[in-house]
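Example 279.
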Amino acid sequence: MPGTLITVAPTGAETAKADVPNLPTTLDELVAEAKACEAAGASLVHVHIRDGEHRPTLDPERLHDTVQALREQTDLIVQLSTGGSVHDPLEQRLRVLDAEPDSCSLTCGTTNFGDDVFLNPYPFMGQLYQQAQEREVVPEFELFDLGHVAALRRLIDTYGLPYGGKVHVDFVTGVPGGMPGTVEALVAGVQALPAEVTSWSATGIGRAHLPIAAAALGMGGHLRVGMEDNLMYARGRPVRDNAELVARAAELASVMQRPAISTAEARSLLAVRDRRARS
Ligand code: KMH
Ligand code: ZN
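Predicted structure in complex with (5S)-5-amino-3-OXO-hexanoic acid:
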């Protein structure tokens, strides 16, 4: 089995800074956290940004500056969330790629999301997918539910392979309204994947974090961890920072004889276009 791609999702859109002051919400905090996560074994950063009041935003200038800063100060693959928050309009989410990330998330269907709805109609998915192909941005297909696997198949059948020819998906399990954060659900999802899928990762929200990570490693999958998904390191012990979640994931991967891969290996695994400036 190959080594392990570790993705860190450091911020998300759901947690308030007032509730979790160590959540990285400013650009300086995000970059510092990203550097520490890279040193701990991460090779891809899944990015949501916040405005001056720490609220989720898709402001184009902020997105652009964030991509540039992460690209200049880390070697991580920079993946922008096109999911944003449940309140972001589809039109704004379609403009995320203007910031020229290496990768973007692409959620494969609408999901109940707690008391809210995370909207992803099929035509929106198709538009986003074609835009990613045209702009040579590698999508990561986010699968919150088993039905999303079927929608992914439809997308590939209709529009062909992504830029670079690799198909990487991420199971986001344990969202209230999506597939549960159980090994059984993950196994069902993995078994249903289209043959075109070349790599997959998984994350479990909240207390599903560790069981899903262990199961993914055992099945040849990769890992996503971070404060977007989990704010508790252990029972009664809040997460100190994202790097400790990455360090634990890297340790687990090493124990499983699938150590964290380098950023160079991750770029090759996902066939990311090299946008880094040459000196
Ligand atoms: N914040 C969620 C509503 C993504 O980043 O693409 C959507 C999400 C998925 O986090
Ligand atoms: Zn996200």
